Amino acid sequence: MVKARKYVVKRNFQGVPKRDDFEIVEYELPPIKDGEVIVKTEWISVDPYLRSFNSMYNPPFDQFSFQIGEVIESKNSEYPVGIKVVSHIGWCDHGIVKMFDDPLRRPYKLPDLKKLPTSYGIGAVGMPGATAYFGFLEVCKPKSGETVVVTGAAGAVGSIVGQIAKIKGCRVIGFAGTDAKVKWLENELGFDKAFNYKTVDITKALEEAAPKGVDCYFDNVGGEVSSRIIKQMNTFGRVACCGSISTYNDDPDKMSKATVLQQYLVMNQIRVEGFIVSRWANEWPKAFDQIIKWIETGQLKVREHITEGFDKLYDAFVGVLAGENIGKAVVKVN
């Protein structure tokens, strides 16, 4: 029998998740059935969507998320012992991977990362990378020479979106939450301009940085920041709504308020589209192949915010919600 530990959510989050909303449970894994495998976890992803999706489940439930594990026991010929698997079984140090058909929960073999770090399989060459690739290219449909704005620009998704926009010949403006992130975006990733949204007047900053208006907006944050950006979009502008991290910790019974946008959407014929990346689940390998090539050629740079230790998962998660990470936040399970 394999002994395992997992994080169980005892109650739905109210505001910022609290440590005692979780319980670490030690238990023995049951015998696996045909088609299943047992993995020893190596890397776990912590992402803002974990907070957003929390209210969709009734406690107690196992904390979900993407992770990478090595198969140590198998009853599935396609997943032999020793192979690495990307799955959605979440915050556990060992777990049983079942072959779900649900696009978001469907496990798959870790892509051939060439010589890149294994952890990239839950970052740039995982769900966040696919989110940036398809959300930007398929929803925004950028054209060379256009102006693109990205919020949450120093995060796992936003940092890749901005770099893809540069690869496609766009002018890129990013908004992030610290001066250090702004410097990283401009000096390392090649953003044309970046701003700390906490210390600038967003409207004035955009008027100066994008005097001809904004064509594409990749929205990770929602709220008033997004309203101010959308007000300055050009006719036939496109908005890809990826997330609303500015409101995730708000009271779900009280809708957050932001400037009404209908007038601007109508007059400028702006298309706003929300998306979930599982829409393109069958096409993820195409995105991964291209992203790996961009990384290998130096066109796309990856930065990780690594936390070590299974017992540090909560701290890493809350840190992401507070904007402490630059790039992709991952936890190495010792």
Structural class: alpha/beta
- Low-confidence parts: none
Helix content: 10-25%
Distance between the termini: 20 Å
Shape, please?
A: globular
- Mean of all residue-level pLDDT scores: 96
Number of helices: 9
Domain Enoyl reductase (ER): 18-331
Main location: cytoplasm
Subunit structure: Monomer or homodimer.
Subcellular location: Cytoplasm
Description:
With 334 residues, the protein is an alpha/beta fold. Strands 3, 5, 6, 7, 8, 15 and 16 form a 7-stranded mixed β-sheet that branches. Helix 3 links the parallel strand 9 and strand 10. Helix 2 crosses helix 3. The longest helix has 14 residues. The relative contact order is 0.15. The mean pLDDT is 96.
Brief rundown of the structure:
By secondary structure, the chain is of the alpha/beta class. The protein has nine helices and 16 strands.
Question: Any chance you could write out the topology, listing elements then pairs?
Answer:
Elements: E1 3-9, E2 22-28, E3 37-45, H1 49-52, E4 61-62, E5 67-74, E6 84-87, E7 94-97, E8 108-109, H2 127-140, E9 147-151, H3 158-167, E10 171-176, H4 179-187, E11 193-196, H5 202-209, E12 214-219, H6 223-230, E13 233-241, H7 262-267, E14 271-274, H8 284-296, E15 304-308, H9 313-321, E16 328-332
Parallel strand pairs: 9-10, 9-12, 10-11, 12-13, 13-14, 15-16
Antiparallel strand pairs: 1-2, 1-4, 3-5, 3-7, 3-16, 5-6, 6-8
